[in-house]
UniProtKB/TrEMBL annotation:
<dbReference type="Pfam" id="PF01476">
    <property type="entry name" value="LysM"/>
</dbReference>
<feature type="compositionally biased region" description="Low complexity">
    <location>
        <begin position="522"/>
        <end position="544"/>
    </location>
</feature>
<dbReference type="GO" id="GO:0008933">
    <property type="term" value="F:peptidoglycan lytic transglycosylase activity"/>
</dbReference>
<dbReference type="InterPro" id="IPR036779">
    <property type="entry name" value="LysM_dom_sf"/>
</dbReference>
<dbReference type="InterPro" id="IPR018392">
    <property type="entry name" value="LysM"/>
</dbReference>
<dbReference type="InterPro" id="IPR023346">
    <property type="entry name" value="Lysozyme-like_dom_sf"/>
</dbReference>
<comment type="similarity">
    <text>Belongs to the transglycosylase Slt family.</text>
</comment>
<dbReference type="InterPro" id="IPR008258">
    <property type="entry name" value="Transglycosylase_SLT_dom_1"/>
</dbReference>
<dbReference type="InterPro" id="IPR000189">
    <property type="entry name" value="Transglyc_AS"/>
</dbReference>
<protein>
    <submittedName>
        <fullName>Membrane-bound lytic murein transglycosylase D</fullName>
    </submittedName>
</protein>
<dbReference type="GO" id="GO:0016020">
    <property type="term" value="C:membrane"/>
</dbReference>
<feature type="region of interest" description="Disordered">
    <location>
        <begin position="496"/>
        <end position="546"/>
    </location>
</feature>
<dbReference type="GO" id="GO:0000270">
    <property type="term" value="P:peptidoglycan metabolic process"/>
</dbReference>
<dbReference type="Pfam" id="PF01464">
    <property type="entry name" value="SLT"/>
</dbReference>
Length: 588
């Protein structure tokens, strides 16, 4: 006879179920009586609903048990683990039983768990907030990958691919088997959930990604990996804490040069994260010598792949040889990547309507001296909106320019630099000083100040000769300021830049503009048009170029002032792979 847990009825005016814990009514957990240490509830436990005494299904009972443990857990690592487990089981329940939310018990635990998810990750409590879309890709991914679990003989050759849906000339093999076929079918069936969003966003970020992949010398088709990672959403955050378009965990991101602190999270910077991802994938390929294995390592880690390869019964095992020894999600990861490449490369073959037009990423990149200027102020200086500045600078976490010893570069809308420079010059000098000291305010603590400036309490004590933890209002503390390198390291650090990924070259310095006040007999005001120099025009290029060892298509394009797409069109190249001795046609 399964264990039956006693009913718990909350009589304070809250509607719905109250099982295992008293939750709801908007009160904080700290105001409730101390919760005893929860015990793991057996999987066959049946909970009894207090409204209709209907026994809950074991799957729902498990969710209530997990919610109870989650609410009682004090350790953040434990909470993250329980939250991941609960959300995964909730996604499975909703996928296998789409009508489950019609039941009040399921709606109750669904509401509780999603509220905890928002609270844990710092999302707004408003369920209509667009920020909640950050997690949408993960529920879609869970459903798509789960559909692959029931494929019989998954590695057998599937039905022939329609000729119009083939992806040819790629450096990464586009294997065809039953898993890939099922993945392609899943993407084809409900494009409004994923593919349609990808096709619009790839117009914005695609040229940037292609440019960086070419510069780093990795295959162009890797751009499809960002689609199944995040849906090309720079703000995406997984239940496990991976962040950004390429879903970096903090440690991996820092290892590849991404700053992650209280002020800046460069995992959300599309350009810097793309460069980090390209280098990470290149390192994985150097280790495994196989792009499919490199993709698997990007998903589950190099150690996970090494372990699977050791277990594979093959002399020189491939991804498909090690497939059954990889985690479930990684088993579906490469097939879904190949499916995404098929669909995105051949939209007409899948009867996809053209996406709503969108412009490629472009902006003016300007240095700001004036740490902790609010983004609202930056927007006012550029005569734009705060939301426009936030969308161009998703790495900024606190609505302000971070403290920096040197100038910090901020993206502003394309063409707005002259107006911004005019208005910035009018700011009082004290607003342009780097934040190197901090005046203590009433209620401040050392730990709060440390978090605010992305440092540690120990560092603050050392810099200021503090032996204890007492600070007083009015004390001026020396605070460490971070060094933030420009996203474009080859550029002059003190000159503004214009970045347009649909032009060649995509980056050029902007000339200084006159920001002094106009003479008194003329109308004072910012210029309406940019007097910046016209785009650089490439000199006449030779008719052909012989590829040498180490060349990449991106480097050759930059050398001759043309775009990668032009080189591909002139030389009938479908990808970016070139070989030493090959002659490339380069037109004037």
């Amino acid at each position: 006879m399964p264990t039956v847990l006693s009913r718990a009825l909350f009589r304070g005016g809250c509607a719905g179920l109250a099982l295992l814990v008293l939750a709801g009514c908007g009160g904080s957990l700290s105001s409730l009586a101390p919760t005893p240490e929860p015990k793991r509830v057996p999987e066959d436990t049946i909970l009894v609903a207090d409204t209709d005494t209907t026994a809950l299904d074991p799957e729902v009972a498990r969710l209530y048990a997990l919610e109870s443990e989650l609410l009682a857990a004090d350790d953040s690592t434990r909470r993250a683990h329980l939250l991941n487990q609960a959300m995964a089981e909730l996604a499975t329940l909703l996928r296998t039983r789409p009508d489950a939310l019609e039941r009040s018990a399921v709606r109750s635990v669904y509401g509780g768990l999603t509220a905890e998810y928002r609270r844990f990750h710092g999302y707004p409590s408003d369920p209509d907030s667009t920020l909640l879309a950050r997690g949408q890709i993960f529920s879609v991914r869970a459903r798509l990958f789960a559909e692959l679990e029931d494929v019989e003989n998954p590695l057998l050759e599937g039905a022939p691919v329609r000729p119009e849906a083939e992806v040819e000339g790629t450096e990464i093999p586009m294997t065809s088997n039953r898993l890939v076929k099922q993945s392609t079918t899943a993407l084809e069936e409900e494009p409004s959930e994923h593919v349609n969003h990808w096709r619009r966003r790839v117009q914005v970020y695609g040229p940037m990604i292609e440019h960086i992949l070419a510069e780093e010398g990795v295959p162009q088709e890797l751009k499809y990996l960002a689609m199944i990672e995040s849906g090309l959403n720079p703000d995406a955050r997984s239940w496990a804490g991976a962040v950004g378009m390429w879903q970096f965990m903090p440690g991996t991101g820092r290892r590849y040069g991404l700053t992650v602190n209280a002020w800046v999270d460069e995992r959300r910077d599309p350009e810097k994260a793309t460069r980090a991802a390209a280098r990470h994938l290149g390192d994985l390929y150097d280790e495994f010598g196989d792009w499919h294995l490199a993709l698997a390592g990007f998903n589950c880690g190099a150690g996970c792949v090494r372990s699977a390869l050791r277990r594979a019964d093959a002399e020189d095992p491939s991804y498909w040889d090690a497939h059954e020894y990889l985690p479930r999600e990684t088993q579906g990861y490469v097939p879904m990547f190949i499916a995404a490449a098929r669909v995105m490369e051949n939209p007409e073959a899948f009867d996809l309507a053209p996406p709503e037009p969108a412009s490629p990423l472009a902006y003016d990149y300007v240095p700001i001296h004036g740490s902790r200027l609010s983004l609202r102020t930056v927007a006012r200086l550029a005569d734009t909106t705060r939301s426009a500045i936030e969308s161009l600078n998703p790495e900024l976490r606190r609505g302000r320019v971070p403290p920096s010893k040197e100038r910090y570069y901020v993206r502003i809308p394309l063409g707005s630099y002259p107006r911004f420079a005019w208005n910035y010059a009018e700011l009082p000098d004290e607003k342009k000083q780097p934040a190197t000291t901090y005046a203590v305010r009433r209620g401040d603590t050392l730990s709060e100040i440390a978090v605010r400036f992305g440092t540690s309490t120990a560092t603050l004590k050392r810099l200021n000769g503090i032996s204890g933890a007492i600070i007083r209002p009015g004390d001026r503390l020396v605070v460490p300021v971070q060094e933030y390198a420009s996203a474009l390291s080859a550029a002059d650090q003190r000159r503004p830049l214009r970045v347009q990924y649909d032009t060649s070259p995509p980056t050029r310095p902007l000339d200084a503009i006159e920001t002094a006040r106009a003479p008194s007999d003329t109308t004072s005001g910012p210029p309406d048009a940019s007097p910046a120099s016209s785009p650089q025009t490439a000199a006449s290029a030779p008719t052909s170029y012989r590829v040498t060892r180490g060349d990449t298509l991106g480097e050759i394009a930059q050398r001759f002032g043309v775009s990668i797409r032009e080189l591909q069109a002139w030389n009938d190249l479908s990808g970016t792979r070139i070989r030493p001795g090959q002659r490339l046609q380069i037109r004037d």
